[in-house]
């Protein structure tokens, strides 16, 4: 059984052509950056020796986010993936939704969810406190001073 995807028959956007061109370039550039960011993320979390999904626990996350490098790395990945994914969905909504109110409702919902997730994710990355774990000194001896 084959699935036929309809041609976009409602291509609309309230933005101008110049804005859409910039959004399209952003999709290409962010897509390229995401390849490297996601590959690095998978390598460090899952592939490198002595790692693997079983080793991803509180201590692992605490160790990573004790470093400003991984805070910035994960923050950039979070922002790029969410803006890229949301803008991609905006394109699909603009292409396929037939009624104006549906298009607007979906697009507003998409950005509300994306902005909420960006704010929450950024707060988690930047305010994460490993010292709430009483056993933290056993795995991060130099991070939490009494
Ligand atoms: C390795 C990472 C990724 C690469 C290389 C990539 C690349 C791209 C490119 C080049 C486009 C534009 C297609 C076009 O307009 O012709 C696109 C569209 C899109 N991307 Fe990504 N992307 C990546 C990750 C993601 C992630 C993590 C999400 C979701 C959070 C996502 C969701 C979308 C969506 C919804 C579209 C719109 C699809 C469409 O217009 O038909 N992508 N992607």
Quick description:
The chain is mostly helical and 146 residues long. It has helices at 17-47, 58-65, 68-96, 100-127, 136-139.
Helix % is 55-70%
CATH class: Mainly Alpha
SSE series: HHHHH
Q: Judging from the principal axes of the Cα atoms, what is the shape? A: elongated
Instruction: Report the CATH architecture.
Output: Up-down Bundle
What would CATH call the homologous superfamily? Fumarate reductase/succinate dehydrogenase, transmembrane subunit
The ligands found in this model are:
protoporphyrin IX containing FE
N-to-C terminal Cα separation, in Å? Answer: 64 Å
Rg:
20 Å
Strand proportion: under 5%
Q: Tell me the total number of β-strands.
A: 0
Low-confidence stretches: none
Class inferred from helices and paired strands: mainly alpha
**Tally of distinct domains:** 1
Description:
The chain is an all-alpha fold and 146 residues long. The chain has one domain (17-131): 3 helical TM bundles of succinate and fumarate reductases, CATH 1.20.1300. The protein has five helices and no strands. The protein has helices at 17-47, 58-65, 68-96, 100-127, 136-139. It is elongated. The N and C termini lie far apart (64 Å). It binds protoporphyrin IX containing FE.
